[in-house]
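Input (Phosphatidylglycerol--prolipoprotein diacylglyceryl transferase):
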Amino acid sequence: MNTFLLSINWNPNPELFSLFGFPIRYYGLLWAVGIFLAYVIVHYQYRDKKISEKKFEPLFFYCFFGILIGARLGHCLFYQPEYFLSHPLEMILPIKFLPTGGWKFTGYEGLASHGGTLGLMIALWLYCRKTKMHYMEVVDMIAVATPITACCIRLANLMNSEIIGKPTDMPWGFVFERVDMIPRHPAQLYEAIAYFLLFLVMMYLYKNYSKKLHHGFFFGLCLTAIFVFRFFVEFLKENQVDFENSMNFNMGQWLSIPFIIIGVYFMCFYDTKKFRK
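Output:
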């Protein structure tokens, strides 16, 4: 049987609609949904821990800009430094300057999860300095919500037909028509499913064992699970930039290794004798 006939042709219009001349894309919408869901989940944890609304209010601002700035700079500097260092305004502004003069609105095409994670961690440190909250308590709460946001981001990549997988003869292969007519692993969907399942595990552990688990456990579990899965799923993905073709591991894998080490440390070794009261 021709497995191509069993594959899924995938060619959604990445633009949902236009608002006052600006395109509203699935990519941006799913990012917004992911951050909103995280906001709701973290808010629930603040109320559950009886932390004041005054301390919660500025959290969204820090998280949103920390993730956005970190993810954007991460993509520009990790994956395309030669281009963006010579076009620095395009790092900051969601536009592309045209060779013929002028510019066009593109949105932020290129956001790296490793950079977003690092940006978030720095932003939370600044937030904790301002609110006098315990850093590990805050990052643990954020960690519980992070997988659902990661799930939405990978669905956004799927709607954009980007970060595609390698060719496959599996019947669930996706033909990304905007790229080519070859059935490929839907690596974005693999990640989205994995992160959603991780979110369910995190919520179960929070509701049933949060008072017994040490500070840093949820943070460590989140980093370890996400980036271990990310490391292995990269074997099913096409390299994003040409220089990765000469590397034993691609950029995403190399960047995942430090986060895995940090995650294992906080999950297994950090503060293991001091439990939450």
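The mean pLDDT is 88.
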